[in-house]
Every structure is written in C-alpha cells, then in structure tokens.
Amino acid sequence: MSTSVKKFESFLPLWVMLGPLFVIGIVLIMNIQALSMQWGMPLISLGGIVVCYFWRWRGCILACTLLSVAFAFQLFLHPSLEILWTTTLFLSFAASFVVTTLFLDESQIVLDKLGDQAGQAKESLTQLEHQSIAQTKIESEKLYLASQVEQLKRELLENGDKLKSHEKLIAIVREELISSHAQHEKLLLELFESRKQSATFEQQVARLQDKNNCLESALKEAVHLELTNDTYVNKAQEAQVLHDAIAQEMKEQIEALLSEKQSLEKTLTNLQREFEFQSFRATNKSELSDSQSVEIAVLRDVIKRSNEDLRLEKIKGEEYKITSSEFERGLSIQVENLTRKLLASTQQIAEWQRKLNDYNSLTISHAALQAKIQEHVSKESEVRLELDNKSVLLQELQHKLNDYYSLTISNAELQTQIQEHISQESELRLELADNSLLLEQLQHKLNDYYSLTISNAELQTQIQEHISQESELRLELADNSLLLEQLQRKLNDYNSLTISHAELQTQIQKHISLESELRLELADNSLLLQELQHKLNDYNSLTISHAELQTQIQEHISQESELRLELADNSLLLEQLQRKLNDYNSLKKSNAELQTQVQEHVLKESQVCLELDNKTVLLAELQSKLNDYNSMLVSHASLKKQIQVHVSKEEEMCRELDNLSSVHAEAQAANASNLRLISDCNVLKYEISSLKQELENIHKDKEALIQECALQKDKTPLLHNNEEEELKRFREIRRLEGLYLQMRDQFHEKSRVLDGTRRELFLMQEKFLSIQKDFESKEMFGDNDSEECLYEIISGTEAELRQQVIEFDKETVRLHQLIDVLMQESLKTN
C-alpha cells in the first residue's frame, strides 16, 4: 500500500470528525458573540449531522432544507438585523453538512478497498495452498512412476533370463531330437532286417507244409495198403506172416506219422495263433504289408484244405469198411497179384523210410526255426516298445517344438513392435529436441521479460515516489483555481490516453480470448492424450492377455491333436475289432464243423471275450474323451470369440493411434499459434512500456506545473466559491490514484506468479534435459525403456504445465476485468 493511502487512513478519524467539530466551533462562536437570535439553526445543524451520518446525501439534503427554512424564518422575523452574520452561519452549517457526508463516503470507499484487498489476499492464500497440494500430488505421482519404471526394468531383466533359459532348453531339445532321429533310423533298419528274416521263415514254413502234404498222401496210401493186407491174411498163411510183420511195422510207422501229424497240426495252430497275434498288432500299428496279409490268407486256406482232407479221409475209411467185404470176396483173384504188390510195397516201404528220415530232419529244422521265430518275435516286441517310447518322446518334442515356434513367432512380433516403438521413440525424441529448442527460446524471452519487469519495478518505485509527492502537492494546491484549470487540461489529455488505452484493452481482450480458446484446445488435446495413454495401457494389457490366450489355444490345439491321434488309433482298433468279429464268426462256423478243435476254439473265444471286454472299456474311455473333446471344442469356440473381440479392440486402438497422430499435429499447430501470441504479448508489453514513459513525461509536466503554481501562490487569491468543484476534482484524482495503486499491486502479484512459473519452467527444462540425456545414454548403451514410461512422464509434465497455464489465464482474466471496470469508472467520472 502506498504512503498517501496510509496517511489518509491515519487521518481517517480526523476527517470523519471534521464536520461535527466545525459545527461545535460555530456554536461556540455564537455563544461568544452573544447574538440576539434564536437557537433554531444550531439545533437543526446538530440534528442534521446525525441525519447525515445515517442517511448520507439524503440526510444532507433534508438538513439543508430544514436549515434553509430556519434561515428564511430568521430573515422574516429580523430582516435588517445581522443579515451577513446569519448568511455566513447558514453557509457554514451547510458546508459542515457537505463535508461530513463527503468524508463519510470517502471512509466507506477506503474500507471497501481494504475488504477487497483482504479477500484477494485470502484467494491468493487458497491458490497457494492448492498449488502446494498439486505439487505434493505431482511429487507422489513422480515417485510412483519411478517405482513403476524400476519394476518394468526388473520384469525386462526377468524376461531376458527366461528367454535365455528357453533358448538353452531349445538347444537341448534339438540335440535330443537329433539323437532320437538317429535311434529311430537304427530301429527302422533293424525292423527291416527282422521282416526279411520273417519272410524267409515263412517261406520255410510253406516248404514244410508242402512236405506235410506229401506225407499225408503217403499215409493215405499206407492205410489203403494196410486194408488190402488185412484181406490177404485169411487167404495165405505164408503171406500172412509177412503181412503181419509188415502190418505191424506199418502200424508203428502210421502211429508215428499220426503223432507227427498231430504235433504238426499243433505247431500249425500255434503258428496260426502267432500269425494272428502278429497280424493284430500289425493292424494296431499299421505295420504289416499287403504281402504278409496275402500270405496269412494263404495259410488259412491251407489249414482249411487240410481239415477238409481229414474229413475226406474219414469218409473214405467208412467206405473202405463197406468195401472190405468186397475185397474178401475178390481175395482169391488178388492172391496172384499179392507177391507183386508185396515187392512193390517193400520198395515203397524203403521209400517211406527215406521220407521219414527226411521228415525227422525237417522237424528238427522246424523246431530250430520256431526258436528263431520266437527270438525274433521277442526282439520285435522289444523294438516296438522302444518305438512306442520314442513315439511318445517324439510327440512331446513335437509339442515343445510347436511351443518354440509359437515363442519364436511371438518374439518376432515383439521385435517388430519394439522396432515400431523405437521408431516412435526416435520421432518423439526429435519432437522433444524441437520442444527443447522452443523452450530455450522461451527461456531467453522470459529472461528478457524479467529484465523488463525489473526495470518496470524500478520505474514503479519512482512512480510511487512521484505519486507521493503529487498527493502532497495536490493537498497543498487544493485552493488554486489556475492549477485546477491546468489539471483539467491534463485530465482531458489523460482521457484521450484512456480512450487509446481502452482500444488497446479491446485488442488485448481479443488476444486473451484467442489465448483462452487455444488453451482450451490445448487442454482438450492434453485430455485426449491422457485418454490415449490410458488406452495404450489397456492395449498393452490386452496384448499380454492375447499372448496368454494364444498359449492356452496352443495347449488346446496340442490336446486336440493328441485326442485326434487317440481317435485315429481307436478307429483303427475298432476296424481291427470288426475284422476280429468277422474272423470270430468264421471261426464259429468252422467250430461247428470241427469237433476235434472245440477246446482250442473255446480258449480262443475266451481270449476274444476278454479282448472285447477290454475294447468295451476302451470304447467307454474313448466316449469320455470324446465328451471332453466336445467340451474343449466349445471352450475353443468361446476363446475364438474372445480373440475376435481382442482383434476388434486392437483395430480400434490402431485407429485411436492414428487420431493421436492427428491430435499431435494439431498440438504442434497450437504451439505455433502460442508462439505467435507470445510475440503479440511482447509487442503489447512494448506498448505498455511506451505508455509508462508517457506517464512519466506527464508526471514531469505536473511537477513543472506544481512549481509554477508555487510561484503563483503569492499572486493568486483563494476562491471560496469553487471549493465544491475543487473537491470533486480532487476526489476524482484520488479515485484514479487508488485504481492506479490497485493495478500496480495486481501487477506485482502477476510478476510474482510469472517468477514462479519461470522457475517451474526452468526446473521442467532441467528435467527435460536430464531425461533427454538419459535417453541418449540408453540409446548408446542399448538400454531402451518402454514407451509407457515416456508417455507417463510427458503426461505428468503436461498436467503440471496445464495447471500453471490455467492459473495464469485465470489471473490474466481477473486483471483484465479489473482494468475494464476501472476504465468504465474513469469514463463515467469524465
């Protein structure tokens, strides 16, 4: 507050009590003079002061009217006595009324100003509190962001370690795959060799079967000869002895042949079972070839033919019994041919002996072949078990490879995303470099502005000193009419200046409105940037969830592939079961015809029943697996829908990123417009400085006029009639001075706010430069942070700048409103 206002406040009680003291002095003078007049006017003056205190100008008018009535009544009663004295009293009382009302109004104005200043001080305190709260929030957010950055760095390190471990596992899996492929090839070679050996064994078995057929034909002939020898016993004794010996030998040979035949049949049945078991396993694993199936069918046909031959032999035996009687009748006819036949029989017996020897050697070789076949079968079973284990390992390795390929694909996508982020970061860094240059330019401009503010502060101190001198001189020169005329001229000049200032004010308001619009646009853009930042965070979370869903989908796909493989195996098993059922039906038909092999077929039936039970259990398990597979398909469909939703969200995020680029371009345009506005503000500041220089010139002229008035004091008399006009002009001047002081205080506050904003901008610039250096160092050493941290830091800085700009705009709007009000009041007073 200025010295003149403080002086006025110190003399405020005296100014308020000046009117009542003036009235009391007049009453005392009346008592001293002891005039011969009534006491109506003094009493009215005392009551009028009270009325003026409560009703101000209305009370003043009422008191003046009552005083004029009393004055007229006094003149009417005493027209010639002391007219001048009564008129002076009347005028003095009226002047006391006017003085009291004027000083009461002035005191009220001063009190209102003090109340406004107190309210402004309270508002400034509240604003400072809000700023401190906002700064604490910003610091807490910065700490939170720093903690998040550290967490992200840790997660990146952990992900790098995980990737290294996965790469090591992949290398190990590759080595295992190579070794498993080599083992698989070795096993395939062994299987190929074993199949060759089994083919040779089957050829040998076919040869044995041919020899067995020959022996069976020989047995048939032997039986026929035995029957003929029985017919010849009764006819010739000599021939009978030989015949009995031959018959016994033949019986022994036949029994041996029959036993051998039974053993061969058993071996054939065992071979048939083994071939059926091998064919069953081969069909389960799809390993038997078409040639082996044809050979198995041929073996089955041979067995059926052998069974049919046995039947025919039985039928022939029955026929032979019938025809034996006929042979006995024709015995006499055939005795002559007996000797010939005996010779032939001896020859045949020799041949049969040779054949038996050959057959014994063949049986020995057949036993050795069976042992070799069993060994190869055991080897094949072991090899197949190893193949099963290797197939399981191969499936696991295949799943691991699928996971690895999915990881490689996801890593490739991540690398592309990282490259995109790096390109975006480079663009942002270029933009940040441009912004840093702009900030440096603004810093230079702010330094110039602060130098101007310092010079303005010095000028304001000088102006305050001049104003204090002017107030003192104006109080001293209140009675000079010439000074008032000169001041009237100066006021006219001042009014012209105020008009020009009003025009400038309108231009400033236009610029301020443009600034407010642009700042609103900037606020909207910043809000859009924040929303896009949140959407980017949502997009990152969606990408993470999408990766998790992809892993789940890959697991489901692997499970589906396993289930499909199991279904394929089970379908093959079902086909094999169908074939077995067909074979079983054929076996039932053959069992109805073959009573000798009933027990063996019963055993086979029990085995088949057990297999059927096992297959029913497998079918139940397959049914449950099918149900699980259907549920998996349903869940897979739901996951596909979720993936489609995520894909749509990703498309929306891409669109929003495009909008962000457009918004960023608009923000750049807004920054350019802000720079233009700053240049306009600098021009306005230059104009204001020129106006201040003009005001200083005016003050100098006033001082010169005051000196001239001081010289003319002795020459010019006081004019009492122009006191009211001088008081009005003095009041107007005082008002203008008060408005000027208010503007000055507001300008000081504005300069303080600008100092605070300058410091904050300087701190932000330092932070920005430190961040830029960190980014450059990270680019040099290859430690790039994620894009989210950059966006969060930029959003925090933008929020701080936005709050400061909003506060700056509010303060500028208030100042302009006050200037408008002051200009309107000055125009009204003029």
Protein traits:
14 helices, 94% helix, single chain, 830 residues, rod-shaped, mainly alpha
Structure report:
The chain is an all-alpha fold and 830 residues long. The chain has a domain at 3-103. It contains 14 helices and no strands. The protein has helices at 3-10, 12-16, 18-33, 40-55, 57-77, 83-233, 237-285, 290-329, 331-334, 336-476, 481-593, 598-711, 723-781, 787-829. α4 runs antiparallel to α5 (57-77), α6 runs antiparallel to α10 and α10 runs antiparallel to α11. The longest helix has 151 residues, at 83-233. It is rod-shaped. 7% of the residues are buried.
The helix content, as a percent range, equals over 70%
> Average pLDDT, to the nearest integer?
65
What's the count of strands? 0
Content-based structural category: mainly alpha
Element order, helices and strands?
HHHHHHHHHHHHHH
Largest sheet composition:
none
User: Counting H and I runs of at least 4 residues, what is the number of helices?
Assistant: 14
- CA-CA gap between termini: 26 Å
Q: If you compute it from the alpha carbons, what radius of gyration comes out, rounded to the nearest whole angstrom?
A: 64 Å
Q: How much of the polypeptide forms β-strand, as a percent range?
A: under 5%
Which geometry do the CA atoms define? Answer: rod-shaped
What are the low-pLDDT stretches, counting only 5+ consecutive residues below 50?
Answer: none
